[in-house]
Amino acid sequence: xxxxxxxxxxxxxxxxxxxxxxxxxxxxxxxxxxxxxxxxxxxxxxxxxxxxxxxxxxxxxxxxxxxxxxxxxxxxxxxxxxxxxxxxxxxxxxxxxxxxxxxxxxxxxxxxxxxxxxxxxxxxxxxxxxxxxxxxxxxxxxxxxxxxxxxxxxxxxxxxxxxxxxxxxxxxxxxxxxxxxxxxxxxxxxxxxxxxxxxxxxxxxxxxxxxxxxxxxxxxxxxxxxxxxxxxxxxxxxxxxxxxxxxxxxxxxxxxxxxxxxxxxxxxxxxxxxxxxxxxxxxxxxxxxxxxxxxxxxxxxxxxxxxxxxxxxxxxxxxxxxxxxxxxxxxxxxxxxxxxxxxxxxxxxxxxxxxxxxxxxxxxxxxxxxxxxxxxxxxxxxxxxxxxxxxxxxxxxxxxxxxxxxxxxxxxxxxxxxxxxxxxxxxxxxxxxx
Length: 434
Prior knowledge:
- The chain is an alpha/beta fold.
- It folds into three domains: 4-26 and 239-368, 3-Layer(aba) Sandwich (Rossmann fold), CATH 3.40.50.1980; 31-107 and 122-234, Rossmann fold (3-Layer(aba) Sandwich); 400-430, no CATH class.
- The chain has 17 helices and 15 strands.
- The protein has helices at residues 14-17, 32-45, 47-57, 70-79, 82-100, 142-155, 174-182, 193-202, 219-228, 253-264, 279-293, 299-309, 318-328, 340-343, 361-366, 402-418, 422-429; strands at residues 5-7, 67-68, 107-110, 116-123, 126-130, 159-164, 188-190, 212-214, 233-234, 242-247, 271-276, 311-314, 332-336, 352-355, 392-399.
- The strands form three sheets. The chain has a six-stranded parallel sheet with strand order 1-12-11-10-13-14, sandwiched between helices. A six-stranded mixed sheet has the order 2-7-6-5-8-9, sandwiched between helices. It has a three-stranded antiparallel sheet with strand order 3-4-15, with no helix packed on it.
- A hairpin with a 5-residue loop joins strand 3 (107-110) and strand 4.
- Helix 8 runs parallel beside helix 9.
- The longest helix is centred in the first third of the chain and has 19 residues, at 82-100.
- It is globular.
- The mean pLDDT is 95.
């Protein structure tokens, strides 16, 4: 494996140089028709379809019930080591503290004429959380549960329903159940895939529907979320993960290589890019990547990712490097320069920014506190990380005074008639005459 090196003179050269990346947003998986069939089956057959799909794809001998009992959740939590429980608890505390700072309050304004205007912020009634199984349940994605559940809890959502694929023996990995137990979540279902998204959206005999669905998944899960959006709210349509590292000559090449590989091992479609103004760093980094990846357990995935979608980009100065980063609008942006705080004001587009050489992306993925559910594929230009607001809705409040109505009725009626809505105009004018 050798990661490509590109040389640019200015940011305008980036779109042409980056044409190789276009395939990441359209990997050619023709799954939409299959997912539509899955959604229809669950909508029509409910639990029967969930059991059938689970037997076909996850657990051949699967038998109801779909819901994990509270006793099983408690037993699983007790079976996990004290050390693991403490690590999960520490991460949860950091995540909760960060998201509590995001809470918005309802507010009201009083006008001189006595009118009251405001905005009421309320949580949705129910949230569905998808937690991927992770290699047949052998690599439990505990962080996904923490990052999705805790903001919903901070928002005040009264009901959280977790769906996760069962292992071959029909059980759920105890670490996932331990995390649920720590968070006081007792509604966990042994069901995954696109069929679980259908169940959360439409409801079945065993699984009542929810209002918002959040959580990562494969292309089938992601497509299902896209297709049910509108019936329910969703967190976002996430694509393959990505990191961009801004580096100058002060950067530690070994650390940058490790950070790029931490992204590359996710998925063959993951992208890891370093943009630097130091040609010598670029050459050293290319060699360091080759040296490090071979010893990884997921070396094949990481190597394929870097070869297909990775790059080391050499630019004339940091200003051009920042401009390229803003064009990419990466999910994760690491600033590994002498003075990262001097660079930060110039960053316009990134899902999350990691400042300095002691802030690798993995710190944010698991433990720092900010959410790791982030916009991908350039959508950081217009969207944000998952947050408490994902699970809230805002209602406008209008309490107009009679003085406001009388003073403004002519203007309101005129605007209504301009739009051809006579009844609107008359509904205001009727109130001018007692």
